[in-house]
Amino acid sequence: MKQLISCCGLDCEFCDARIATVNNDNELREKTAKMWSQNYNAPHITAETINCIGCRVDGVKFEHCNVCQIRTCVADKGFNTCGDCEELDTCQIVGAVLQHMPEIKENLKS
Q1: What is the pLDDT of residues 45-78, one digit of tens each?
Q2: Distance separating alpha carbons of residues 104 and 98, to the nearest angstrom
Q3: Alpha-carbon distance 28 to 16, whole Å?
Q4: Average pLDDT of the chain, as a whole number
Q5: What is the pTM for the complete model shown?
Q6: CB 3.0–4.6 Å: which of 18, 29, 41, 100 could bond 50 by disulfide?
């Protein structure tokens, strides 16, 4: 499994927050903050909070990743991702993510 697949299955390689961080791209940080704050009704997301190197790699994390229930659950169980868990198909924690983006489940199986 690629190291840039997050605990829930998102591909961090293509995440605008990671891309902006790696490239130190303040314009992309601004664009991402505006889009995410509108899409997720989260006005606390600002360009200053758009810094992340990836969910499962060492380095800076997006502020939500530090309190993410999915990431916490995976760590508590000693897994790499939710794909390692027998409860993946019935899990209520990751279920909401998979419901809105069912295609990422394939990332958890690879």
Answers
A1: 999 999 999 988 888 888 888 788 999 999 999 9
A2: 7
A3: 7
A4: 92
A5: 0.82
A6: 29
3-state secondary structure the chain: CCCCECCCCCEHHHCHHHHHHHHCCHHHHHHHHHHHHHHCCCCCCCHHHCCCCCCCCCCCCCHHHHHCHHHHHHHHHCCCCHHHCCCHHHCHHHHHHHHHCHHHHHHHHC
Per the listing, tokens 């897994």 go with 79
Token pair belonging to 21: 């961080």
Q: How many CB atoms lie within 10 A of CB 76?
A: 8
Q: Do the beta carbons of residue 17 and residue 52 sit within 8 Å?
A: yes
pLDDT above 90 (res 42): no
Cα–Cα nearest to 54, from 8, 92, 90: 8
Task: Output the six-digit token pair for 19.
Answer: 């891309």
In this structure, the chain runs to a length of 110
- Averaged pLDDT for residues 85-95: 94
